[in-house]
From TrEMBL:
Protein's name in the database: Tetraspanin 31
Keywords carried by this UniProt record: Membrane, Transmembrane, Transmembrane helix
Positions of transmembrane segments: 12-33, 45-66, 87-107
UniProt entry tagged with the keyword Transmembrane: yes
Organism: Scleropages formosus (Asian bonytongue)
């Protein structure tokens, strides 16, 4: 088995999720320690750091729970991405035509003479 295969990637992701769990716990602990010893007095800062720590901890736990089940869904993803690309192509084509219309209107507006302007003025 060479590194870079499925097993190596799976183990690397599990290790990364464990590191993220430790970082999340560290954020929560440091924020609580800072508030407990009165180092940081702003409850907004403490709440923000604890919220980030909890969010990171939850994402890491979900990542560890999901590496246990591996289903190949490449075909489903390809079908979905092909459908999404068709929709995005149509939307892009629609907006490109509206941009061409905008350029045409801008050129038309630029070449019109202002009826309120002085007729003896150069522009």
């Amino acid at each position: 088995m060479v590194c870079g295969g499925f097993t190596c990637s799976k183990n690397a992701l599990c290790s990364l999720n464990v590191v993220y769990m430790m970082v999340g716990l560290l954020l929560i602990g440091v924020a609580a320690w800072g508030k407990g010893f009165g180092i940081v007095s702003s409850i907004h800062i403490i709440g923000g750091v604890i919220a980030v720590g909890v969010f990171l901890l939850l994402i890491a736990i979900v990542g560890l729970i999901a590496k246990g089940q591996c289903y190949t869904c490449g075909n489903v993803m390809l079908e979905h991405s092909a459908e999404a690309l068709k929709i995005l192509g149509g939307v892009g084509l629609f907006f490109s035509f509206t941009e061409i219309l905008g350029v045409w209107l801008a050129v038309r507006y630029r070449n019109q003479k202002d009826p309120r302007a002085n007729p003896s003025a150069f522009l």
